[in-house]
């Protein structure tokens, strides 16, 4: 399992974009759960809770911007 940290910005960007393309998120409340499922599926882990919350916020902003 690959542990992703704040320094892995390239990996984070790729994972976020793949998640947005691969998953249909029904509500902003389901983003964290679906993102965790996706990370588990691609064998990655984010141990930093603050980073995880920031990534979920970033995903939400990208999804709102695309609507």
How would you describe the overall organization of this protein?
It is a single chain. This protein has 67 residues and is mostly helical. It has helices spanning 9-22, 31-41, 49-66, and strands at 2-4, 44-46. Strands 1-2 form a two-stranded parallel sheet. The protein is globular. The model has no long low-confidence stretch (mean pLDDT 89).
In short, what is this structure?
Helices cover 64% and strands 9% of the residues. The chain has 3 helices and 2 strands; from the N terminus they run βααβα.
Question: In percent terms, what proportion of residues is strand?
Answer: 5-15%
Give the overall silhouette: globular
Cα end-to-end separation: 33 Å
Most strands sheet: 2 strands, parallel
Average pLDDT reading: 89
> Which strands sit side by side, in order, in the main sheet?
1-2
Helix percent band: 55-70%
Uncertain runs are none
Number of H/I helices: 3
Structural class: mainly alpha
Which radius of gyration do the C-alpha atoms yield? 11 Å
The number of strands is 2
What is the helix/strand order? EHHEH
Write the topology of this structure:
Layout: E1 2-4, H1 9-22, H2 31-41, E2 44-46, H3 49-66
List keywords for this structure.
two-stranded parallel ribbon, 64% helix, 3 helices, single chain, 67 residues, mainly alpha
């Amino acid at each position: 399992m690959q542990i992703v940290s704040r320094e892995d910005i390239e990996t984070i960007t790729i994972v976020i974009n793949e998640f947005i393309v691969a998953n249909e998120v029904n509500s902003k409340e389901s983003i964290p759960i679906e993102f965790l499922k996706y990370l588990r599926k691609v064998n990655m882990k984010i141990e930093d809770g603050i980073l995880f919350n920031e990534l979920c916020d970033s995903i939400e902003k990208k999804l709102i911007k695309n609507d």
